[in-house]
Amino acid sequence: MRTKANCSQTELSYAKRKETKKYNRQKRRQAWETVKKSGRADKTRYGCHKGDTTRGRKN
Asked: I need a surface site. Which of 6, 25, 40, 53 has the fewest CB within 10 A?
């Protein structure tokens, strides 16, 4: 993570959060790709509704 030498703590935490979001997005995408490849892209992990997996609901 690249940071300026004289940035404040809030800026720092903001940058860190941004970085984390990016990383998580990549990870999620990767997981989805593997699921698609293995043919498990049915109702097991990615449910019928958009928010199913995030709310911990497995169909």
From this structure: 6
